[in-house]
Amino acid sequence: xxxxxxxxxxxxxxxxxxxxxxxxxxxxxxxxxxxxxxxxxxxxxxxxxxxxxxxxxxxxxxxxxxxxxxxxxxxxxxxxxxxxxxxxxxxxxxxxxxxxxxxxxxxxxxxxxxxxxxxxxxxxxxxxxxxxxxxxxxxxxxxxxxxxxxxxxxxxxxxxxxxxxxxxxxxxxxxxxxxxxxxxxxxxxxxxxxxxxxxxxxxxxxxxxxxxxxxxxxx
Length: 219
Known about the structure:
42% strand, GH16 domain-containing protein, glycosidase, Jelly Rolls, mainly beta, disordered N terminus, Beta-glucanase-like, 1 helix, Beta-glucanase/XTH, eight-stranded antiparallel β-sheet, hydrolase activity, hydrolyzing O-glycosyl compounds, disordered C terminus, single chain
């Protein structure tokens, strides 16, 4: 199938993910941005879901902007993205990563997951520092994008960013180059999120307030 969950995950029927135990409230930290009631916050703000049907997908974004930080959940941050591509039954799920800066991406890398992300919640994290960006799955680093501005490679370091997630149909390219199409008889497709946590530098009124004493072993 060719569904696509931008920044978080895309699954055949259910897209399920999570992070560490301590978490905030989705009511407090996020806005539902599109989808005409396909995006929902429930369980007292501890769970959020996105749904996709043949008419529309859905999405949300963080209320705050960040400039560097350590963010944990199924997330899209600093225009660095986790993207889950649809698969054929029994094939490994592909985790697609990218880093955007100065309006351009073209820094894709893909990884085969060692588990089926539709069966349980998993932790997807990004650590964004002036020196590098680290992508982690279940606290295991899978990619390091180093700051190589000294040799002319742009690096995101001055523009504050929000966290975004969306669930939408991309069967024109996401699964085997668009060869596998979405089976709409299985719709609606639903992604679940829980346990958001950010130890990050919050951007407000043109300045950043920061405290990020986490994941020291990866710094």
